[in-house]
Specification:
Elements: E1 6-9, E2 19-22, E3 28-29, E4 38-39, H1 40-46, H2 51-54, E5 58-61, E6 67-70, E7 74-75, E8 88-91
Antiparallel strand pairs: 1-8, 2-5, 3-4, 5-6, 6-7
Length: 93
């Protein structure tokens, strides 16, 4: 079972520092175990996130504005397996 409330990241594959910001129109991410990018707006629709909540939903990005994680919804390709190499653990409470 996948828990989208925790992500494990390897700082060597990211552009630090990480930031938490709101959704911006045009945001997209590479979802873990999928090919290519997907628009965040499409993910919100698929996950049935109310349109009034989308503009205030937290989005974790790196310093290059690459979407790293949608807490509680989706992990990006940057997420490491628990048995893999990682040195950052983020948890959504």
């Amino acid at each position: 079972m996948t828990n989208n409330n925790v992500t494990h990241l390897n700082s060597e594959t990211l552009s630090l520092p990480l930031y938490v910001r709101n959704y911006h129109q045009g945001d997209k991410m590479t979802i873990k175990n999928m090919q290519g990018h997907k628009k965040i707006s499409d993910i919100f629709i698929d996950e049935k996130i109310d349109s009034s909540d989308r503009d205030s939903y937290p989005v974790v990005v790196d310093s290059k504005e690459e979407v790293i994680w949608l807490p509680g919804i989706k992990k990006s390709a940057y997420d490491s397996k628990k048995t893999g190499k990682y040195d950052i653990i983020l948890e959504y409470l």
